[in-house]
Amino acid sequence: MKEKLLQYLWNFKIFNSFDFTDVAGKPVEIIDFGKWNFDSGPDFLFGKIKFQGVTLVGHIELHIRSSDYIFHRHTGNPEFENLILHVVYFHDADIPELVSRNIPTLELKNYIDETVLDKYASLENAKVFIPCEEIFNAKKIPFQFEEETLLKKLDHKSLEIEIALAKNKNNYEAVLFQNIAYAFGLKVNAQIFRQLAENIDFAVLNKVRQNLTQLEALFFGMCGWLQSPDDEQTTIWKRELDFLVIKYQLKTSGVIPKFSKLRPPSFPTVRLAQLASLYHLNQNLFSKVMTAKSVGDIVKVFRNVVASPYWNDHFNFGKVSTTVGEKILTDDFISLIIINAILPLKYTYQKNSNENITDEIIAMYRSLPAEKNTVIENWKALKTPIRDALDSQAFLFHFQHYCQPKRCLECAIGFQLLKHN
């Protein structure tokens, strides 16, 4: 038994009987179990009980053992002056202060079903995909769980976006660029591409985006790739980079993307060329995606994006490939950009001005296909319905923030699983 579990059981009233008596055998009627307190002081505030014919209103403290009251140094603490009940799992000692104040002690050991403790122990000790894997039941997923979890994810992401906005002097366009760059980097280069975008003054990007060659030179040069040109095209990019460095007093950062564990179409050279195409073709990109009313409108923005002709037969500088073809964005890749870069920023940008934005965003996630990755495949193996991006985003977020850290007592699904059948 852990104190956090005891608090959880008390908060959600998971007992096999409510005919409580204190350790002396006197009836204790719990009228109000109180409000769970996550700050200092008693565990539950503003509870209400009836004891010895008197209704008492005040705070309730929980411990594994009665003696913990002393070990936790609550004796004489003014925060516990308004205590009306001491709740313990196991009563091992009378507490003089509580006895003198006629505060009852309630021992819960016999009121808790052992199967609940066994379930929790299995969650704590699990070494599987999710702690509750052995008792997981997709039918126990609460109603509207996916929508509520997605909104948690968006609110969590909004906090990150607001921090980025503060760093960028509330420049939403710059933050959009950084978010899109992150998405273009995929798992291997996401953080590196974000750093690259943060190192580029967005005002400079705005000035050179009409010239695709200069924009490519800017991106490639910031990676330190143009120091030794390999062919005619890289020589041109090097010349343009030297011009930009002098004109805008740039400092090339030498942030070096990775090629390992990537298929050639996802090489950072190709992705940065496509990113340059996106910003070259869309001078008002931010306005287009923020005012879009459907996923289809956003997809149109990315549909014509293609790496410049040099990359038709190249995946790296100076090396001609036998695989020839335009490097366009696939439908799956466009969906990932919309899911991870566009929609969270759109939600943040409009949440205080558009009362319908929540419904719009949810509808957009519903119209996008679910992501394909190991975590989602594991959820599917548990017969979890993953129908679209709303579902996949919800269960990815839930896995990361609840299942991996084993926050089972804060989990809506865990609550349903721990309840009596």
General description of the model:
This is DUF2851 family protein. InterPro entries: DUF2851. Pfam families: DUF2851. The chain has about 425 residues and is an alpha/beta fold. The protein folds into two domains: about 5-110, no CATH class; about 170-365, no CATH class. Helices cover about 50% and strands about 10% of the residues. It contains 18 helices and eight strands. Strands 1, 2, 3, 4, 5 and 6 form a six-stranded mixed β-sheet that branches. A two-stranded antiparallel sheet has the order 7-8. β4 (about 55-65), α2 and β5 form a beta-alpha-beta unit. α5 packs across α14 (about 330-350). The model has no long low-confidence stretch (mean pLDDT about 90).
Give keywords.
about 425 residues, alpha/beta, 2 domains, six-stranded mixed beta sheet, two-stranded antiparallel ribbon
Summarize the structure.
By secondary structure, the chain is an alpha/beta fold.
SS elements, strand count: 8
Main beta sheet, described? 6 strands, mixed
Question: What is the percentage of strand-forming residues?
Answer: 5-15%
Number of helices: 18
User: Which regions have little confidence, pLDDT < 50, spanning 5+ residues?
Assistant: none
* Secondary structural class: alpha/beta
Query: Can you give the helix content as a percent range?
Result: 40-55%
- Give the ordered list of helices and strands: HEEEEHEHEHHHHHHHHHHEEHHHHH
Chain-averaged pLDDT: 92
> What is the radius of gyration?
29 Å
The tally of structural domains comes to 2
- For the termini, the CA-CA separation is 21 Å
- What spatial form do the alpha-carbon principal axes imply? elongated
